[in-house]
């Protein structure tokens, strides 16, 4: 039973949050935010462990596609709720919240996730992280999605054409990787207890836990989202920033913790590779679904309008992604690269503080937009420098879309 203790604790921790939904309990916004955040956090752990075991009992092609889809479920649930409400109430702040949550999740994944994994590995093992050649596939498609993402803030809207392109990139990626040879990865940690069960019990336990996690996330997404916004207003904190940074932390933290665990074991390639794949999933599938959900919710094929601030947030997110790709394109990444990602992330994370310096000249919103533009320019300039200095690294990413020859 000791091996199953993490599962039992995680399931137990989701109960208070789920009870809020089942019994329609209304507490103060801060308490509801905390309870539902804990529920989503623990459900994300259960989801990750279930995905790890799931790959033992379903075809590899199905496993790859399923895990890629499931990986974005926590972020998807919260962001799609905001997007749905934006379609129902076009003049409300829900459009801002949807973009905030999406951009925050993407920037957090690179700025904190990638950099911390690299730094922890280097502090313990004193060497750079080297990714396998197979990761050129993720990097190539991530680069393609990033290049296209720059067009969204330029045209000032998210529409169904964007969905076709971004989800199309995701589908092409999935179609390619399911043709690659199967690589059996060792299952460790809490997932090992489930993996060691007899096959029928393992399948039942895996899918049962997956169903529990998915239901918890879907049940609490609305309560968490609304409570988070209400908490910001109650505490006098900008709710846009809470939605942008606090909401993704609840869903991203389990993935970060697992990646850090792999890095501490010396398996940094697996750790960083999984985060690169997660970034690709979020940057294609998650972003691509936003205009689709908005169209269904609004009952029309109209585009999702973006204000000036949302355009600058998207531009900054795309610029950070471009810089990260430039750093990792050679499949080797070290301390300097990690520190540059981390420092720039926390510098732009504090951009509202810098904006106060320009309030008197431009006004609060224009000042914040100016700061976002400055950081976007820094990321783009650094990316261009790296491309000019090491063009061959980017040229060889094309190898990532070559279908492997059958033996």
Low-confidence stretches: none
Which CATH C-level class is it? Mainly Alpha
The share of residues in helices is over 70%
Strand content: under 5%
* CATH homology superfamily: NCX, central ion-binding region
**Count of distinct structural domains:** 1
**Biggest sheet, spatial arrangement of strands:** 1-4
In the CATH hierarchy, the third-tier topology is known as A middle domain of Talin 1
Gross morphology is globular
CATH architecture: Up-down Bundle
Specify the structural class. Answer: mainly alpha
Termini separation (Å)? 44 Å
In round numbers, the mean pLDDT is 87
The total count of strands amounts to 4
Oligomer: single chain
Profile the largest sheet. 2 strands, antiparallel
SSE topology sketch:
Layout: H1 5-22, H2 29-54, H3 60-71, H4 73-88, H5 94-125, E1 129-130, H6 136-149, H7 151-155, E2 157-158, H8 160-177, H9 191-195, H10 199-235, H11 239-264, H12 268-298, E3 304-305, H13 308-328, E4 332-333, H14 335-349, H15 351-355, H16 359-362, H17 364-389, H18 391-395
Antiparallel strand pairs: 1-4, 2-3
Helix pairs in contact: 1-2, 1-10, 2-3, 2-10, 2-11, 4-5, 4-10, 4-12, 5-11, 5-12, 5-13, 5-14, 6-8, 6-12, 6-13, 8-12, 10-11, 11-12, 13-17
């Amino acid at each position: 039973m000791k091996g199953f203790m993490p599962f039992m604790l995680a399931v137990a921790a989701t109960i208070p949050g789920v009870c809020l939904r089942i019994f329609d309990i209304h507490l103060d916004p801060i308490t509801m935010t905390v309870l539902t955040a804990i529920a989503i956090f623990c459900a994300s752990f259960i989801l990750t462990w279930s995905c790890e075991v799931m790959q033992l009992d379903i075809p590899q092609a199905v496993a790859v596609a399923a895990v890629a889809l499931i990986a974005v479920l926590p972020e998807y649930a919260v962001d799609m709720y905001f997007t749905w409400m934006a379609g129902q109430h076009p003049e409300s702040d829900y459009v801002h919240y949807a973009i905030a949550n999406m951009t925050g999740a993407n920037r957090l994944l690179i700025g904190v996730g990638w950099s911390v994994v690299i730094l922890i590995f280097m502090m313990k093992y004193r060497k750079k992280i080297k990714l396998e050649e197979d990761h050129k596939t993720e990097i190539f498609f991530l680069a393609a999605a990033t290049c296209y993402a720059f067009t969204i803030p330029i045209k000032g809207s998210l529409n169904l054409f964007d969905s076709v392109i971004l989800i199309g990139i995701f589908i092409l990626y999935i179609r390619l990787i399911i043709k690659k040879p199967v690589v059996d990865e060792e299952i460790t940690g809490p997932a090992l207890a489930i993996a060691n069960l007899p096959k029928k019990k393992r399948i039942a336990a895996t899918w049962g836990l997956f169903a529990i996690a998915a239901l918890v996330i879907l049940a609490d997404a609305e309560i968490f989202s609304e409570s988070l916004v209400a908490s910001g207003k109650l505490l006098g904190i900008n709710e846009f920033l809470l939605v942008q940074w606090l909401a993704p932390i609840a869903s991203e933290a389990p993935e970060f913790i697992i990646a850090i665990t792999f890095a501490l074991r010396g398996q940094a390639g697996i750790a960083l590779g999984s985060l690169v794949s997660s970034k690709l999933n979020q940057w294609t599938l998650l972003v691509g679904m936003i205009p689709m959900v908005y169209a269904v919710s609004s009952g029309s094929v109209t585009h999702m309008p973006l204000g000036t601030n949302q355009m600058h947030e998207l531009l900054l997110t795309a610029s950070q992604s471009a810089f990260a790709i430039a750093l990792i394109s050679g499949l080797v990444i070290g301390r300097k690269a990690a520190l540059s990602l981390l420092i720039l992330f926390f510098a732009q994370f504090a951009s509202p503080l810098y904006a106060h310096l320009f309030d008197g000249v431009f006004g609060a919103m224009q000042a914040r937009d100016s700061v976002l533009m400055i950081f976007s320019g820094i990321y783009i300039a650094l990316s261009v420098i790296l491309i000019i200095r090491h063009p061959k690294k980017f040229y060889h990413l094309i190898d990532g879309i070559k279908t492997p020859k059958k033996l």
